[in-house]
Amino acid sequence: MRFMSKGSLQLILLGPPGVGKGTQAGMVAKKRGIAHISTGEMFREAVAAGTELGKKAHQYMAAGDLVPDDVVIGMVEERLSAPDCQKGFLLDGFPRTIAQAEALSGLLERIGRPVTAVVDLRANRDELIRRLSGRRVCTGCGATYHVDNKPSKVEGVCDVCSRKVAQREDDRAEAISRRLEEYLAKTAALTEYYERKGLLEAVDASGAVEEVLQRVQERIGSRAE
């Protein structure tokens, strides 16, 4: 695998559902000129490209099974060899477990590019529930809206295709509470793991998107200097 250039930035972004992780990941990557690596997209690209690891992953996914960590790490390694990762990368959605974190650490040490910082976006439970429960999705084209921040021009009607806009079942309050509990149970050990390594930067994700971005930039900047 090709080594990345000196001075590159290696980031991991953590955060519960509704915290704005995807939005911040894209903005930070663009601001810093680094690759935004969403594991979901990485899987889809590898499967579509028909790589050996993509084929292996597809077999597990088609059977409804979790893709084994060694296959995921192999796919991450493949992705990091791409030209857009030479200045660095931001991992969004990976790692999810201690085993994955340790495997990733081994990979990054081997290529000489250890993690610069792990940004943990945080918001209180009520705010997360408000954000998620207010989300609406078009039943036709999949366009997303929010009752507070981004409502459709006509209530209940998609601006793009004029189909019905509705709330998903997993965006109802009870389902959201379960999702948050599940996230915290799975990631508590992961945040502690990175905190013990001195890599964790907890960032308040409440407030406007640009305000949160500024906080993230400040925390990254202190690590990258």
Strand percent estimate: 15-25%
Q: Mind telling me the C-alpha Rg? A: 18 Å
Q: Catalogue the unreliable spans.
A: 1-6
Annotated CATH homologous superfamily: P-loop containing nucleotide triphosphate hydrolases
CATH architecture: 3-Layer(aba) Sandwich
CATH class category name:
Alpha Beta
* Main pleated sheet: 5 strands, parallel
**Helix-strand string:** EHEHHHEHEHEEEHEH
Total helices: the number is 8
Q: What is the distance, rounded to the nearest whole angstrom, between the alpha carbons of the first and last residues?
A: 27 Å
CATH-defined fold name: Rossmann fold
Q: What is the helix content?
A: 40-55%
Q: Average pLDDT value?
A: 91
Structural class: alpha/beta
Number of domains: 1
Estimate the global geometry from the Cα principal axes. globular
Strand order of the largest sheet: 2-3-1-4-8
Number of strands: 8
In a nutshell, what does this entry contain?
The chain is of the alpha/beta class. It has eight helices and eight strands; from the N terminus they run βαβαααβαβαβββαβα.
Describe this structure in words.
With 225 residues, this protein is an alpha/beta fold. It has one domain (9-137, 186-224): P-loop containing nucleotide triphosphate hydrolases (Rossmann fold, 3-Layer(aba) Sandwich). The chain is built from eight helices and eight strands; from the N terminus they run E-H-E-H-H-H-E-H-E-H-E-E-E-H-E-H. The chain has helices at residues 21-32, 39-49, 52-62, 69-80, 98-110, 125-133, 173-196, 209-224, and strands at 9-14, 35-38, 88-92, 117-122, 135-138, 144-146, 165-166, 200-204. A five-stranded parallel β-sheet has the order 2-3-1-4-8, sandwiched between helices. A three-stranded antiparallel β-sheet has the order 6-5-7. Strand 5 and strand 6 form a beta hairpin. Helix 4 runs parallel beside helix 5 (98-110). Mean pLDDT is 91; it is low at 1-6.
